[in-house]
Amino acid sequence: MSATPPTPTTNRRPRALLLDDDAVVVRLLRTALQCHGYEVLSAGDGAEGVAVLLDALLDLDVLVVDLDLPGRDGWSFLRLIRDAGGERDLPVVVLATAASPAVRAQLRSLGADAVVERSAGPAAVARAVDAVVAHPASRTRIRATVDSISALLVPVAVAA
């Protein structure tokens, strides 16, 4: 098991946001990631995930998202972060069930840094997270992403 060192600029443990609706999976992945030195935030559905993402994005080092998350799935999170927000610095690990090579390629083309089969287990997910957390993200670009994503999610006022 490898331990991820504290981020160099803040001397804090790296922070992961885990989005999955299965409480058992969340518990197992939280434990595995904590053993690898991560502080773990989590959400159980897409709406809660967006709220936590916007609140914590400036301090996140990696996003781990279930491809089949209810409310806003992994596909949607990738599009929201990569396309709408323009964020490329936040690593994203997608958890998938029986993803075909075509699905894996599609996820990669949308900006997933890694795709891990859920059946591979928590240790494999933690290793994938370690592998994609190579350097600290650019906080300036992430701040712009928070603003972009927030603007997309705020309802537009309609004149009466």
From TrEMBL:
The keyword Phosphoprotein applies. The modification 4-aspartylphosphate is found at D66. Residues 15-133 form the Response regulatory domain. Keywords: Phosphoprotein. InterPro entries: Bact_response_regulator, CheY-like_superfamily, Sig_transdc_resp-reg_receiver. It holds the Pfam family Response_reg. It comes from the Bacteria. This is Response regulatory domain-containing protein. It comes from Anaeromyxobacter oryzae. The lineage of its organism: Bacteria, Pseudomonadati, Myxococcota, Myxococcia, Myxococcales.
